[in-house]
Amino acid sequence: MGMRLDEEFGADRVLQIETDDEENEADDYKIEDDDDSGSDSTLHSPVHEPSHSQIGPHDSPTWPQSYRQSMNMFTGVTPPSLSFLRGSSFLRSQTTPTPQPSICKPLISSPRSNKEEVPTLTHPTRLSVVSSARFSALELPPSQQCSYTQSVLNAINALCGIGILSTPYALKEGGWCSLFLLLLFGIITFYTGILLKKCLDSSPGIETYPDIGQAAFGMLGRIFIAVALYAELYSSCIEYLIMMSDNLGAIFPSARMVFAGIHLDSYQMCAIISTLVILPTVWLRNLSLLSYISAGGVVALIVVVLCLLWVGAINEVGFHSGGTALNIAKLPVTIGLYSFCYGSHSVFPNIYSSMKEPSRFPSVLLISFSIAFFSYFGVAVCGFLMFGENTSPQFTLNLPAKLVTSKVAAWTVVLTPVTKYAITITPVAFGIEEFLPSPQLRTYGVSILIRTILVFSTLVISLTVPYFGSVMSLIGSSLVMLVSLILPCACYIKLSKDGITRFQLAACTSIIMVGVVSAVIGTYSAVTSMAN
Question: How does it sit in the membrane (predicted)?
């Protein structure tokens, strides 16, 4: 069985099957080892009292086991070889990977005595319906260590995303005073990013966001956070598809098609074409090249912003004063759009873990958040002064179609999802694959099927709810508020316990309240706007 699976998936994907006899032998082996080393353990190993803030030596990361390695794509900076799903490793570099311990290894190793001892086998708790199968770390390479400059670029690339397209629209909806919310959410999410670092430092076995949830609230906390993170990634893919379809539809406004008696307008036709273009990228097993290309998102952002400024300053549009001071009725939409701009906390633990100098992580966040805020602020002001009350949810749709600068901006926005979609959806696909109940189902065809279903499901949703601004506001109000505001504070309070100061407790409690209120109001507003 093992040889057939190795041949089918390639040398880098291994499924470890444990039979009941092997598990019993592992139990016997462990008992004998404990008897042999028990007398010496008290001499060489300190005794630790059990703590809820740490993941104990017999705890193990269950589902999702592939989260950290799949999210490391967002911190990749070196372009390796490119290959399809069969016979190639996930994010494999061109060099031979160093052997690593299994993903199922406990987060915190048990203290060892000075004498040589044989490694023992533990029985970690597993969430998956698979009782005897687990993924081996041979499938995934060692995490790449990033320099300080690379870490800053990774953080900027994570923060400065497609949310910038909607900042002028958010300013139009909320009024000029709403820019204070853009600053406020920037400060809050910067602080919660620091809290995530403190949570990671609370125990040497905590490396990912789901690990933080497990350390703070047990297995349910791990599951809840993992589901929230995967939902955020999946919904971002929906936004990518809507954005790509909107801009393609603006480039080809007269495109129409009749297929089997079904009339497809420009948006629907472009959505289907965009899906077919994106689909082969999700079949790639090695996404490192796409990861490297998508790191050029900062360059794409600069190009689009320069196109906006060029159209306003050089071409015929110009800048015109106007707008209201504050629009309370539309403020919930603005809250969701502004919060979406800072929704990168799912990547921060990976950026921190990949740093050669992790002590400089706060300055990485400070630089990246500062650049992100001033970028969002500048684009919001310039875009609204250019288009006023006619501002669209994506300012690229307001650019005059006849201008070459507008075409450059539109095509830049169209091509960006081609590199980012597969990287964003792959962690979700790997999380789903861990639930496959039988090793026989972990085949090339099933992996392709899962990814294909995920892509077409985002197509269905984007055709059903083709509202870029409303969907972004919904994501920002619900998922980003949860992942970037509420959960970091809740986990930090739980993990710190008696060590938290009164100021920190008050600050975390206030942020949780702001997050809950904003989530309820913003989510309701976004849902109602899509329903109307």
Answer: Multi-pass membrane protein
